[in-house]
Amino acid sequence: MTVISRPERSAPERSLSAGELAVTRQLLIHGPATRGDLGERLNLSYASMSRVARALIGGGIASEDLEPATAIGRPRQILTAVPSARHVVGIKLTGDTAYGVVCDLFGEVLGSAKAALPAAVDGVVPVTGVVKVIDQLATKLARKVPSLDGIGISLGGVVADQSIVREGSFLGWTEVDLAGPVRERTRLPVIVTNDVAALAREQLWFGAGRTHSTFGVITVGAGLGIGVVREGVPVEQTIDNGHLLAHAPIDSNGPLCGLGHRGCVAAYLNREDIEAQASAVAGHPVTMADLIAARAAGDPAATARLDAAARALGHLIATFAGGLQTDCIVLAGEDAAALTDSAGLNEVIADRLRPGPRELQLCELTILTTPLTFTDWARGAAVTGTQYALGTT
Questions:
Q1: Residue 75: C-alpha distances to residues 162, 195, 234, 354 (Å)
Q2: Domains in the chain, start-ordered, CATH in brackets?
Q3: Residues 35, 39: Cα–Cα separation, whole Å
Q4: CB contact at 8 A, 297 and 305
Q5: CA-to-CA distance for 209 and 373, rounded, in angstroms?
Q6: Is the pTM of this model over 0.70?
Q7: How far apart are CA 377 and CA 57, in angstroms?
Q8: Are the beta carbons of 101 and 392 closer than 8 angstroms?
Q9: In which order are the strands placed within the sheet that holds 109-116?
Q10: Mean pLDDT of residues grouped by 10 in the chain (393 residues)?
């Protein structure tokens, strides 16, 4: 009999204090800094900053070195975050596949893997089988790093208490505790989150959050997703899973969405609805990829359909930004690039931002576009797991 040894998994590290977490986040987002600069930015006294620095250095989270000698004055000590201080596995679940990555403290992907999920039984993917697949992926990815400090899991749906999948339609789940069984099997800290919320957390540390404390995230692909970061705090669970924005009316004469709304945002942007509408007109199955290829070949019908979707997305971006009162929206997802290729989106944004004749306060809107692969989705889960392992919720 062959005995396969499992990679050793580290005992969970202690959570960082509020001050330690604040300094760590500053180092990750803005790079190396002196104790004095960090204390000034975070309103920490000299004594408090000294205690935090000693704790982070002692815990391996940060290192400290003298800056290069200068002609005037004594060299200052520079604190720098240590990438190898934490290693976390991120898992993105779809309806049939688990995509995994292992990342360091900086969110750098050090390894990736994927595995098929067990087949659904009566429309429900077996939870025990999913837990087993997650454990197998974590074991495989653990071989890429010295030890693991946690697991982050993301999926489309509604998640409560960072553990319970209240609504996971792609998997057929309702009120499923996923974190508990994974934690029991892997003996690691585990956090479960909505996939767009995980992406918002990743953007907070390594994307839009570097320059904006409040921003929105919109994903367009297999589904239409909404994420929010408000004053540096990610909103873990929206009140409606983005439903109110997704079904806001655009055109009372427009197509029907899957819920029967006439001309709502989802009717133009949900890939399933777009494909169903195009297929009905063509009399045979038409995919989003088919529409994109047809537009590139000059097909006017495909061009008109994708232009309509882009205009709907423009209205959604402007409405979301206005409601959230932010000048930054992150646009992501598998279909993002196809829609931003249309002039219709920019035309709508420009029209919505156009001031009235007596308005003096001009609005500018930054739209950051990041097309996503499943590896990127899994990275969002890993960054969420890293934040959880460090002590932030």
A1: 45, 45, 38, 51
A2: 18-84 (1.10.10.10), 85-203+375-390 (3.30.420.40), 210-371 (3.30.420.40)
A3: 6
A4: no
A5: 21
A6: yes
A7: 31
A8: no
A9: 109-116, 97-104, 87-93, 150-155, 190-194
A10: 41 73 92 92 92 93 78 74 96 96 96 97 96 97 95 95 93 97 96 95 92 95 91 87 91 92 94 94 95 95 95 96 95 91 91 87 88 90 93 75
Residue 301's identity, in one-letter code, is A
